[in-house]
Amino acid sequence: MDGDREILSGAARKLKVVLSMSYARSRRRKREAVRLGTALALVAVAAFLAGTIFGVEVLSPARHRQVSGHAWTTSTQEASIRIAAVRSDGPGVICGLTVTIKPGMGRIFTDTRPLIGLDFQDSERIAVKVAAGLTDVALNENGGLMGADVFFAVSPPAEGSVTIQAVDGPSAGAAMTVAVVAAIENRKVKEDVIITGTIREDGSIGPVGGIFEKARAANDFGARLFLVPKGQSVVIMYREVVRQAGPFRFVTYEPVVVDLNSYAENAGWSIRILEVSNIQEAVDLMLEARPAIEGGLL
Description:
By secondary structure, this protein is of the alpha/beta class. The chain has a single domain (about 75-295), classed as Ribosomal Protein S5, domain 2 (2-Layer Sandwich). The protein is built from six helices and 15 strands. It has a four-stranded mixed beta sheet with strand order 1-2-5-3. A hairpin with a 2-residue loop joins strand 11 (about 235-245) and strand 12. The N and C termini lie far apart (about 120 Å).
């Protein structure tokens, strides 16, 4: 009996030690979990504060700092420009774009007839920002003109000639920027000069597709000068090659380098293709002189 009591007493002590160790481990794990949760909470708070302080650059790249310049104080001004596009079925087409600037709250509006895609709308915002920099007009915190609303509207090339259901893509960005500059400065865009190219925030003009089709459409429209991004007056086209092997006919397409000015001359076109690298070059070539007033120029 005494031996049995000793065995039971030893087992109880062991059980007590095991329970004490398990309890200690449990408490230690709880403390570690609390410390981990606290650390994660601190990280979350730090990230939130960082986003609040630095979010203009890190979390919200679409927002713009207000730039130096003057606010819009004049009445409504408007400018129209031709834009070159490529239809979904292949041919190029020349449409119209009108930019209207009115006293307002710095908003940018887009006419939705035809439907306007997101890339086109994004190009409108970049165009306003770049044009503001060229003309010394201040921007608000959302990237609009300080004290003015800007309206963009696309129109078909001619009544009944082409039905436009939707417009998208960034290739009219350079034309948009020229039109905004023209509206701000109350200048006219030359009707016989057309441009294609994207617009970048630094004012440079980026490459686009469909150059040949757009050049042909610009020539058919009657333009004398077609402005294209740097390096795109020479394009790669594809020539159909047909080979016959017995009863089988094989069709392949081979790339051909085409100088658009040489092609235009050989084809009897009256248009000239000229490369531009930035929006200032385009503005100088596309806008009429500022209207004269007494005592000088506006």
